[in-house]
Amino acid sequence: MASYLVTGGAGFIGSTLVRRLLDQGERVRVADDFSTGRRANLTEVLGRIELLEGDLADEAVARRAAAGVDYVLHQAAIPSVPRSIEDPVTSNRANVTATLNMLVAARDAGAKRFVYASSSSAYGDSETLPKVETQPDNPISPYALTKLAGEKYAVIFHRIYGLSTVSLRYFNVFGPRQDPNSPYSGVISRFMSAAVKGRRPIVQGDGEQSRDFTFVENVVSANLLACQAEGVSGMVFNVGTGERHTLNDLLGALSTLLGRDLDPEYVAPRPGDVRHSLADIGRARQHLRYEVKVGFQEGLRRTVAWFRESAEGDGPG
Ligand code: UD1
């Protein structure tokens, strides 16, 4: 049994990681300040994890979090482009300061590997598709810059201090437990939430922008593979599916699954928005043995099922 720290373990991706690790019989510590993570995401697993509540931008909290763990899966962040545009200082503190503290803490605690949740936003609006890790970075929002800064720190901690770090650039992740309640929430959760409440989904722009929508279980698998892969320290990997769908396609697929037309409302495009995003996953396939296990349609089916169940119970809101 190995011990894992999942920072941001009360969040959407973090809490999915926690469940998979527990299913595999691993020892799990969660660090979260519940600023964007939700207590409800941990209710089912509370008796089986160690929970550390605190802000990782506080060095002492970061040290307590990393003490004695084998693997650090650093998911904690404020994961939103528009929120970073409104309040870049808070995003920088959560995404950069806390990451630097965690790297220092993991180095000093002698962690075997530090896996960092980076973002496809590092590619910005470069026209090249698919996005490949060798192309130049081009962050176009404070969020993208904070995520890229964390990634560069991870690379430098490998080079200078010999900490074994791996960065995973997530492409638009979706699935059960993604919080739809903030105006900053990911688009699939926003559309799902509107649909179950009988409201019209809001499309920012013409709906022809496209994303490599990645079901969360694929991201969880990539994290676990990244802990064990050899010869990957200091490397950066795309984690996506290698397929893209426009928002209009997405609305069509959801309408089919729900059995009714969602009748979206089109409004102005969002500032700082990227037009198209698509991952080249060749490097992850080669070095991490990453494969897409759950595709877009199956992922949507599972997500719709979860939103429906939640709407019948206490609901995701
Ligand atoms: C970006 C990053 C992603 C990162 C995420 C964190 C890119 C390509 N992707 O996602 O890696 O993890 O930030 O939040 O930079 N939209 C609507 N209606 C809504 C909500 C959103 O039309 O109710 C539109 C947005 O304007 C955008 C698209 O849907 O065009 C996707 O938005 P969102 O889900 O917020 O993610 P990104 O900004 O693409």
Features:
Rossmann fold; about 40% helix; binds uridine-diphosphate-N-acetylglucosamine
Describe the structure.
Helix 6 packs parallel to helix 8. The protein has a domain at 3-174 and 214-242 and 276-293: NAD(P)-binding Rossmann-like Domain (Rossmann fold). The radius of gyration is 18 Å and the shape is globular. The strands form 4 sheets. A 7-stranded parallel β-sheet has the order 3-2-1-4-5-6-11, sandwiched between helices. A two-stranded parallel sheet has the order 7-10. The mean pLDDT is 95. Helix content is 40%, strand content 16%. The protein has 317 residues and is of the alpha/beta class. It has 10 helices and 13 strands. Uridine-diphosphate-N-acetylglucosamine binds next to helix 6 and strand 8.
Topology readout:
Blueprint: E1 3-7, H1 12-23, E2 27-32, E3 50-53, H2 59-66, E4 71-74, H3 81-86, H4 88-109, E5 113-119, H5 142-161, E6 165-170, E7 173-174, H6 187-196, E8 202-204, E9 210-211, E10 214-215, H7 216-228, E11 235-239, E12 245-246, H8 247-258, E13 265-267, H9 282-288, H10 296-312
Helix pairs in contact: 1-7, 2-4, 4-5, 6-8, 8-10
This protein binds uridine-diphosphate-N-acetylglucosamine (UD1).
Uridine-diphosphate-N-acetylglucosamine is lined by residues 79-81, 119-121, 170-172, 186-187, 190, 202-204, 209, 211, 247, 270, 273-274, 277.
